């Protein structure tokens, strides 16, 4: 069954016909060409596909495209303002937290959601917030440092 949905992605209004079983990941990557949304595990375990839906980080591989109806979607492509990176992206660069490039977009999206809440978190709380992201190179230390730097600003 097809459904017509209306939503915004990175500030632009869109209208699309989506299949009832189509995921948000498939719609964003496959149909809108937003390849900053990465496909890792496809089962909600790795965090590579994380996008923001109405400001909340979600795994787009287990979120139906139909659920995006009426919502505001943001992906990595919508964060920078031209050549100006958003504060989280800049912190990842400054602290050497950009590693394989596959996990980084999802981590940046979750960290952006955290930063936009404007709440200071302890190291354990930051760790818990990022626990949905798997990094096989195990370079978590620089990622933690980058996120903490943003939250402290
Ligand atoms: S691809 Fe979605 S959580 Fe891994
Ligand atoms: S940043 Fe991707 S495996 Fe570590």
Annotate the secondary structure layout.
Blueprint: E1 2-9, E2 12-19, H1 24-31, E3 50-53, E4 56-59, E5 72-74, H2 87-94, H3 104-117, H4 123-129, H5 140-152
Parallel strand pairs: 1-5
Antiparallel strand pairs: 1-2, 3-4, 3-5
The protein binds FE2/S2 (inorganic) cluster (FES) (2 copies).
In helices, the fraction of residues equals 25-40%
Distance between the termini: 47 Å
Strand order of the largest sheet: 2-1-5-3-4
Beta strand %: 15-25%
Low-confidence stretches: none
Rg over alpha carbons: 15 Å
Q: Decide which structural class fits the backbone.
A: alpha+beta
The number of distinct helices, counting runs of at least 4 residues, comes to: 5
- What is the name of the CATH topology of the largest domain? Ubiquitin-like (UB roll)
Can you give keywords for this protein?
Ubiquitin-like (UB roll), 153 residues, five-stranded mixed sheet, 2 domains, binds FE2/S2 (inorganic) cluster, 5 strands, alpha+beta
What can you tell me about this protein's structure?
This protein is of the alpha+beta class and 153 residues long. The chain folds into two domains: 2-75, Ubiquitin-like (UB roll) (Roll), CATH 3.10.20; 87-152, DNA polymerase, domain 1 (Orthogonal Bundle). Helix content is 33%, strand content 18%. It has five helices and five strands; from the N terminus they run ββαβββαααα. The protein has helices at 24-31, 87-94, 104-117, 123-129, 140-152, and strands at 2-9, 12-19, 50-53, 56-59, 72-74. The protein has a five-stranded mixed sheet, covered by helices on one side. α2 packs across α3, α2 packs across α5 and α3 (104-117) packs parallel to α5 (140-152). The protein starts with a strand and ends with a helix. The model has no long low-confidence stretch (mean pLDDT 95). One FE2/S2 (inorganic) cluster is lined by residues 39-42, 44-49, 59, 61. One FE2/S2 (inorganic) cluster binds at residues 39-42, 44-49, 59, 61.
């Amino acid at each position: 069954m097809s459904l017509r949905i209306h939503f915004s992605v990175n500030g632009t209004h869109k209208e699309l016909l989506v299949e009832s079983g189509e995921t948000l990941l498939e719609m964003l990557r496959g149909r809108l060409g937003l390849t900053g949304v990465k496909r890792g595990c496809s089962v909600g375990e790795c965090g590579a596909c994380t996008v923001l839906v109405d400001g909340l980080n979600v795994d787009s591989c287990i979120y139906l495209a139909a659920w995006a109806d009426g919502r505001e979607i943001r992906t990595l492509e919508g964060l920078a303002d031209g050549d100006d990176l958003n504060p989280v992206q800049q912190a990842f660069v400054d602290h050497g937290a950009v590693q394989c490039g596959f996990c980084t977009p999802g981590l940046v999206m979750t960290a952006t959601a955290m930063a936009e809440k404007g709440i200071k978190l302890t190291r354990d709380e930051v760790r818990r917030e990022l626990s949905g992201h798997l990094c096989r190179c195990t370079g978590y230390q620089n990622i933690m440092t980058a996120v903490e730097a943003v939250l402290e600003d």
